[in-house]
Amino acid sequence: MKLQVPGFVAGAVAAGLRKDGNKDLGMIFSEVPACAAGVFTTNQVQAAPVLFDKERIKSGRCQAIVANSGNANACTGKRGIEDAEAVARSAATALGIPEELVLVASTGVIGRHLNVSVIETAMPKLAGQLNAAGLYDVAQAIITTDTFPKTVSKQSSIGDKTFTVAAVAKGAGMILPDMATMLCFVCTDIGAEPHLLGQALKDAVTASFNAITVDGDTSTNDTVLLLANGLSGLNLKEAACAAAFQKILNEVLFALALQIVRDGEGATKLVSIQVKGTSSKADATTVAYTVANSPLVKTALFGEDANWGRIMAAVGRAGVPINPHTIDIYFDDVCMVKDGLGCGEETEAAATTVLKADHFTITIDLRLGSEAATIHTCDLSTDYVRINADYRS
Length: 393
Fold this sequence. Notes:
alpha+beta
């Protein structure tokens, strides 16, 4: 379906922040002030836009988001905050709205001051070309090492009323939950109060962006912002509406999360690591992350090598209780390991066939309980090293 939400317009321009001359400044604008919620990085080193937004979003209101690529505005001190304020002020002036209703986001190289002057110069043009179909342009403007824009849109109806949830995101490297090196902007015409919208967003992030990993790194700029303008006539205060909205929001963010993993820097495979048979969900999650982030496991996946010994080793160092003699490992439906022992060359050959697919599941059954968790990751290729070795050049 179209990437449009009633009451929202958006757009992007090439302001001159990127060396390649591509679009690098995007804006999303709600025609009426919207309820707002956000989730941000847990990295203790936080970029100026994150610090700025975390304060401003306490009001629970927002009408515009301005986002740039090409510069993270991170580790830039007091000037970084002042630059974020200047960008918001410039957008507010161009849009004719109160400055406190503007949030900002940045992505790109850390440690360099933002070129505010080129943003201020481009802002009137950007504000003047906003349109209902402009969310895709925003998705293009926030790309860094991504290979494609990430977008999702879904609708649902309650009675004779329909609501829409549309979102754009960027992310390909420095991806680890809590959260990833990503920006995500979600627009909906549902009505909400800040505390209800905030809880819905946290729940959706837990099941999506906090269940993926590419390389085990966590960024300084991770931001998810959700704006709800209420134009559908539906409201989260109604139980049926809240349930329907949570379902759609979960689906939208999960779809974006999988796009991010699939587009992991240099990635060739999307791999779901399912761990079950643990005494707690926390133990299952810990084991899944340990396997998903293991460079030895991830390089074996890239080489299509059914090296189950690397998985066993990762499970063993995860720091949770295990019994090495009760572990079963499956590649899709191929049982590679039973009771902690390999199942032979014939099954390894079958597993190698599974590894040639671009998406498959590795299931690790510890057989110690009834809890489970799934984390989505990708392989680690030679291109990952190439991309990150010369990212700043």
